[in-house]
Amino acid sequence: MALPTQADDFPAWYQEVVRGADLAENSLARGTMVIKPYGYAIWEAIRDALDKRFKETDPPHENLYFPMFIPQRLLEREKEHVEGFAPEVAVVSPAGGEELAEPLIVRPTSETIIWDAYSRWIQSYRDLPLLYNQWANVVRWELRPRLLLRTTEFLWQEGHTAHETKDEAWAEALQMLEVYRQVAEDVMAMPVHLGRKTASERFPGAEETFPIEALMRDGKALQAGTSHYLGQNFARAYDVQFLGRDGEQHLAYATSWGVSTRLVGGLIMAHGDDKGLRLPPAVAPHQVVIVPIYRSDDEQDRTVSAAKAMAAEWGAAGIRVRVDERDERPGFKFADHELRGVPIRIEVGPRDLEASQVTVVRRDSGEKTPVAMDAIAGRLPGLLDEIQRSLFDDAVAFRAANTHEASSYDELRSLIADQGGFVSGAWCGDAACEAQVKADTKATIRFLPLEPEDPGAPCVVCGRPGIDTATWAIAY
Amino acid sequence: MALPTQADDFPAWYQEVVRGADLAENSLARGTMVIKPYGYAIWEAIRDALDKRFKETDPPHENLYFPMFIPQRLLEREKEHVEGFAPEVAVVSPAGGEELAEPLIVRPTSETIIWDAYSRWIQSYRDLPLLYNQWANVVRWELRPRLLLRTTEFLWQEGHTAHETKDEAWAEALQMLEVYRQVAEDVMAMPVHLGRKTASERFPGAEETFPIEALMRDGKALQAGTSHYLGQNFARAYDVQFLGRDGEQHLAYATSWGVSTRLVGGLIMAHGDDKGLRLPPAVAPHQVVIVPIYRSDDEQDRTVSAAKAMAAEWGAAGIRVRVDERDERPGFKFADHELRGVPIRIEVGPRDLEASQVTVVRRDSGEKTPVAMDAIAGRLPGLLDEIQRSLFDDAVAFRAANTHEASSYDELRSLIADQGGFVSGAWCGDAACEAQVKADTKATIRFLPLEPEDPGAPCVVCGRPGIDTATWAIAY
Q1: What is the pLDDT of residues B360-402, one digit of tens each?
Q2: Which of B271, B305, B334 is the endpoint of a domain?
């Protein structure tokens, strides 16, 4: 299997890893994908980590499910929202004859149908807050689809909360941003910046969009998740009023927040190397693979049975372990497990058995160490933790090496063109300067810091006094 | 709240329980529903019980995800399948101008798109078996929708497996039927009959459909899940050939199997009584609710803090417990938790505190018992088990009391009309006799036994020699 190197052709490398590691493939309808079992198992691990944290907040979030068909008129109520999404929605009609009295769209996101329901569910401040989330598929017609990163249909979660006050909604949006940070960094080992989006990059209908932004190994940025403070826009559009503690009617405050199967694409590009995927143990479908090595039937019997005994023991201790008994040469298996990013490979040959040891190979570093058989079980949990941490540290170091500061427009342009990565500099807040950078370099402002930084410094584009420090990158 | 009695108006009772217990509600597009948090939590418990068992089979099943958009031409390849589903499919087209080169349908089930992919995934017997499942939403345009039982969009799992031999596929279909039985009986406490469907009731494209059939408390039957042996029909339609051990090309054998959110509707109707839901502890979102009872602020402080201490202790022991601190009268809370089917209610008042006891009320039997406070934690797990078993035993007894045998056509008709429930009798195997019973009584053959029973006995309809014992019922 000929994996292109990342340096030679990163897009081809990505495509080949997705294919070769059996993560996903294109399906028949343009822009749709099949998420294959290995890719889906990674998504399940990310999903479970998120779901657990949603349910553990205080007060907890609960899951529910809204239909995917939304009457078109609902979409039209919030002006910015419809302008943002109308061009990419799919329209549905039943076959078998009957025409629909009103067109239905397939949800591109569910604020509209959910806030229409909230107008019936919310009467009094006693009904607040509503802290709901759903796991669902959504559809956005994509012109330039890309497996896992941008597909016509994708899987995601979307949280939709309603609150009595602005402060509470604002705190909720930031709380969920922190949950996303935890899952990105602590589970996926993918460092992210938390920030605010500029007006031009906000979710349609949001007053503030807080992203988590990650850096991929080709120096491009990936918006990996967003949490939105929606103010009273949706309450106004869907007439969600409640009787307040003061006896008056008020409009509810809203947030929404979502991450999707795009995270799996981010995981590949945040950690992968020229041999393929490198999976953090917390999301790896198989954390350990044991490869028995033999030349004769007798050796096969002995190494396979030793491998199975170890796998049974470690499996009972909660480690996800697989014995690779396929009828293939060891070299083929090694390359396959490297491509699939299995964190630890254990080789057991007849000589290992004689020496009562195994050979442990780390996927992250390639390091190969003999370990005594009676010590290995005790060593695995610590080794998995170490690999998890080392992948995170690697990614942090990569990001640091690919983050630069620009103090002039020439410098900004050359850093973006020559170095890639994140480039920060002062910004005056004018959308015209933002647009000029995009036109000249293709880079966009990925985020502003959560609190404005270094106001007054001269804007790197126009030289007028800046209001904040912006971070640019070319993004997926 | 005026819950109609089951005897007076079962459909109104059902509707009011679904509404009052906050399980689901109608959404805007005809036939679609919102699954509310309490209903969704029940579905999550059922889903997790199934998912765990799918993954624990040997060899295990794996989850994956196929797109919901299927090119219409794919549906047309398997003749019976398209005839079965074409009338109820929804067709989609992108908005924003562009017309599609070929129409896409929203999946009513995914055999077509999955077997099209299997034609690329399966080359050799070494690629078999494929044991895959997906959790997904599907759409079937319904003319007579009913919350949770029959909705235009519903959530389900669909397993799709491919095998080398007929025997293996047949065994797989039965293995998954047994998984469905375990979840229905051991988790949902809902006894089910396993059997075979007659040709007229089979899944379109199946050679054999194995249902689990349950009895609801109005005497109607519910098809709660189905496992299909599909023979080589889909392999033929989608050209899924593999190189066999004999060096020849062969068509693969298929199964598919599914259960849906309809199970939640079945749960309601299998256990509910005139006070509302009765939930088996294994699927109850709250297994125990503690209601503090007080008249003064001081009493409130003491009973609420005692309730919270107990809840913290039991929660840590893995019991799903909730303290009802709402500002409502105890009588309101009791009725609410009865409506929602919470298995155990604990009342704690000031006199209970003085006597170091609590009052335990079982939802299944209504039985009220004082229990010493230092004994209650130890008693709860056993009590929950007892309630789980007792709901199952109740349902088994109800089914036994509502199962009859008919030895003549007059008897069959009067049993169906007067008694309801399951009515069994000999059947000659002729579809004409089956159709006549349906025309005369609205009852259909719900199942034949897994192995033919009592062949030779005279058909209850026509008197000719029977080939099997059929079981009729009026069904949802």
Answers
A1: 999 999 999 999 999 999 999 999 999 999 999 999 999 999 9
A2: B271
Site from B23, B25, B26, B28 to mutate, A interface, most A CB atoms within 10 angstroms: B28
Give me the CATH number covering residue A108.
Answer: 3.30.930.10
A127 and A58 in a single domain? The answer is yes
Chain B residues touching A104 at Cβ < 8 A: 29
CATH for A326: 3.40.50.800
Facing B86 at nearest CB: one of A67, A69, A96: A96
Chain B residues within 8 A of A132 when measuring between CB atoms: 37
Residue A140 belongs to some domain of the structure? yes
In a domain, A180, yes or no: yes
Supply the pLDDT for residue B76. 86
Contacts of B44 in chain A (CB under 8 A): 63
How do residues A289-333 score in pLDDT, each as one tens digit?
A: 999 999 999 999 999 999 999 999 999 999 999 999 999 999 999
DSSP designation for A200? G
Burial of A99 (0-12, 13-18, 19+ CB in 10 A): exposed
Q: Are A275 and A338 in contact (CB under 8 A)?
A: yes
Q: How far apart are CA A331 and CA B15, in angstroms?
A: 62
Distance CA A97, CA A268 (A): 45
Q: Do A35 and B68 touch (CB under 8 A)?
A: no
Residue of chain B minimizing CA distance to A32: B67
* A338 in the same domain as A265: no
Name which of A27, A68, A86 is nearest B95 (Cβ-Cβ).
Answer: A86
Is A393 a member of any domain?
no
Q: Do A40 and B63 touch (CB under 8 A)?
A: yes
- Residue B207 located in a structural domain: yes
Same domain, B237 and B303: no
Same-domain status, A179 and A300: no
pLDDT score, position A142: 84
Same domain (yes/no): B166, B293:
no
Interface touch B34/A104, C-beta < 8 Å: no
Looking at residue A454, which CATH number applies to its domain? 3.30.110.30
Give the one of A35, A66, A116 whose C-beta lies nearest to B64's C-beta: A35
Q: Which of B241, B271, B301 is the last residue of a domain?
A: B271
> With contacts defined as CB-CB under 8 Å, which chain A residues touch B129?
none
- Asked if the model's pLDDT at residue B71 lies above 60, the reply is yes
Q: Which domain holds residue B261?
A: 10-271
The number of folded domains in chain A is 3
Q: How far apart are CA A348 and CA A356, in angstroms?
A: 10
Alpha carbon A438 to chain centroid distance? 24
A136 contacts in chain B (CB < 8 Å): 137
ipTM over 0.90: yes
Considering only the beta carbons, identify the residue of A37, A87, A90 that sits closest to B64. A37
| In a shared domain, residues A358 and A454 | no
Closest CA to A162 of A188, A187, A132, A182: A132
Q: Are residues B257 and B297 in the same domain?
A: no
Residue with tokens 């279909």: B173
Interface contact flag, A65 B152, Cβ < 8 Å: no
- Across the A:B interface, residue pairs with CB atoms under 8 Å apart total 144
Asked whether residue B198 falls in the same domain as residue B227, the answer is yes
Judged by CB atoms closer than 8 Å, whether chains meet at B65 and A155 is answered as yes
Instruction: Assess whether the previous peptide bond of B129 is cis (omega < 30° from 0).
Output: yes
Q: Which of B69, B28, B39, B47 is nearest to B152 (CA)?
A: B28
Residue A346 φ then ψ, to 5°: -115, 125
Residue B25 to chain A, least CA–CA distance (Å): 10
Type of residue at B164: E
